[in-house]
Amino acid sequence: MQLTVEFGGGLELLCQSIKIHNVDVDMPAGEEKLTMSNLLSWVRTNLIKERPEMFMKGDTVRPGVLVLVNDCDWELSGQLDTTLEEKDVVVFISTLHGG
Question: What residues does each domain of the chain span?
């Protein structure tokens, strides 16, 4: 499934400073749909190059990371259970900034 995954607010530094990734994510074996839970696991394995603990805590994103699916907050669409479709755009933005 082709998706666009974007990182902002400093999270792009975990992905070799690349903000926008056009990716092709395979459906998990035996699954009929791709969920945000599946995508997070794929991102951790394939895109995050350093310090994955700055992006994820357990099986979800760390507190302070805003997640948008097609410009809609994932909290309104089911968070980890959000179903993704071809050509969706998923954006991860850190809302925490050092000073």
Answer: 2-94
CATH number of 2-94: 3.10.20.30
CA trace torsion 63, 76, 23, 92 (10° rounding): -30
Tokens representing 92 are 């991860």
Task: Quote the pTM value.
Answer: 0.91
Per-residue pLDDT tens for 45-82?
999 988 988 899 999 999 999 999 999 999 999 999 99
**Pair 25, 34: CB distance under 8 Å:** yes
Q: Residue 3 in contact with residue 84, Cβ under 8 Å?
A: yes
pLDDT tens digits along 55-65: 999 999 999 99
